[in-house]
Amino acid sequence: MDDALNAAPARKKVVLLGSTGSIGRSTLEVARLLPERIELVGLAANGSVDALAAQVRETGVKRVALCDTTKVAALRALVPADVTILAGPEGLAELASMEEADTVLIAIVGTAGLQPALAAIEAGKHLAVASKEILVMAGEIVTAAAEAKGVKLLPVDSEHNAIFQCLDGHRGGEKEVSRLILTASGGPFRTWPADRLADVTLAQALKHPTWEMGRKITIDSATLFNKGLEMIEARWLFGIGMERIDVVVHPQSIVHSMVEFIDGSVLAQMSKTDMCFPIQYALTWPERVAGGLQPLDFGKLAKLDFEEPRHADFPALGLARQAGLTGGTLPAVFNAANEIAVDAFIDGKIGFTDIWRVVGETMHSHHTAPASSLEAVIEADAWARRTASSFAGVAELSL
Ligand SMILES: NC(=O)c1ccc[n+]([C@@H]2O[C@H](COP(=O)([O-])OP(=O)(O)OC[C@H]3O[C@@H](n4cnc5c(N)ncnc54)[C@H](OP(=O)(O)O)[C@@H]3O)[C@@H](O)[C@H]2O)c1
Fold it and tell me: Atom 15 (ligand 1): residue with closest C-alpha?
């Protein structure tokens, strides 16, 4: 028999940025299930030193990065002496470029993952992307850099991973695709009357009906900004115009997204609502691997519902379409304004429906410029944070 066929499958060496978060913890779970396929070689977080130290002890990684430099000494005391600790945003970028790694999974919430993502691409690493915000802010730059370096962008977001799976092996190319259809759970307020939305509390917004996720994405799911961000993310990942990206509400979150082809056929990808599925596919691609994940039991699925989003009551989708169609720096502004508004809502400074207002007002005040340079995008992002903070009536919360 051919030796090449008998050879053990390649073991991916993965750097995981945002290891202490929801996606980070699911990635560790996938790595635990597939030790012969996935080896974690670097971990990074912002400041959760106890959780990071426990992950270092479990995985045996020898290199970590911590963005919050004030906590490095505390981490030093908790990990073995032969573990290298890199610090600050530069430390994250250095970890993302480490020689030994072949893939970097970015699961940092918000846009702090952008510089490490670009460093990873520059160093020739494949990028598994959970952090949708970086593609919304700088999709043109990230995709051009990946193409120039010949590295792959592997979607981890369940919707984009579903589309990636539906398109995988499809030889007809983009011209045979008629629409990408992203599914949305509709969030906890899907059926609420519009006049009750202004009174939504933080606790209510943090109760997602189908997914367990970090705070920011859970609020984004409640406003539907998450789906708006995903529309723009899809535009960059799949090179499909915004006008061909649609959203359908599917409360059970079993169909993760669909591709409609020009002959009218639709391919959908389904699985349980568990982020381990898309993470595993992204990290074992181009192969499918038997792991410990359980398939759907169709006998127990009562029904699958689909409905139109309530565009007028949840304006995030319209704002996203406007940002994506206009392009240039407007998507970066859309994203940054949303980050500020979500922080302000979490801090109790603004109401739930103010999130839409703050993002809309910030977008309408912006003079869109081309987004082909990183400087232009960073400048638009900083402008949007200042402007959104003022529309939210808060001191600027973060840069
Ligand atoms: N959760 C999901 O199911 C899901 C699904 C699809 C896509 N996503 C996307 O994946 C990303 C992560 O979401 P999540 O739900 O996992 O968030 P999360 O639970 O809030 O975790 C965020 C992670 O990012 C780290 N982090 C934050 N700021 C950082 C910085 N400046 N430098 C380094 N690390 C930093 C945090 O570290 P500390 O713990 O130290 O603060 C933590 O590890 C988001 O972009 C989200 O939209 C998430």
Answer: 214
Q: What is the mean pLDDT of the chain?
A: 95
| Alpha carbon nearest to ligand 1 atom 13, residue | 109
Give the ligand 1 atom nearest the CA of 47.
Answer: 40
Each residue's pLDDT tens digit, 270-303: 999 999 999 999 999 999 999 889 999 999 988 9
**Side-chain half-sphere CA neighbours of 56 within 13 A:** 25
What is the pLDDT at residue 6?
54
> Mind listing the pLDDT tens digit for each residue in 57-111?
999 999 999 999 999 999 999 999 999 999 999 999 999 999 999 999 999 999 9
Identify the structural domains of the chain with CATH numbers, from first to last.
3-155 (3.40.50.720), 161-272+298-314 (no CATH), 327-391 (1.10.1740.10)
**What is the predicted pLDDT for the residue at 292?**
87
Q: Which atom of ligand 1 is nearest to the CA of 229?
A: 47
132 lines ligand 1 (CB under 6 A): yes
Q: Is 20 in the pocket of ligand 1 (CB under 6 A)?
A: yes
Atom index in ligand 1 nearest the CA of residue 218 equals 15
**Spacing, Cα 131 to ligand 1 middle (Å):** 7
pLDDT band at 4 (very low <50, low <70, confident <90, very high): very low
Q: Is the CB of 48 under 6 A from ligand 1?
A: yes
pLDDT tens-digit readout, 9-18: 679 999 999 9
Asked if residue 309 has a cis previous peptide bond (ω within 30° of 0), the answer is no
For residue 162, the surrounding DSSP H or E stretch is: helix 158-167
* Residue list for the binding site for Mn(2+): 157, 159, 230
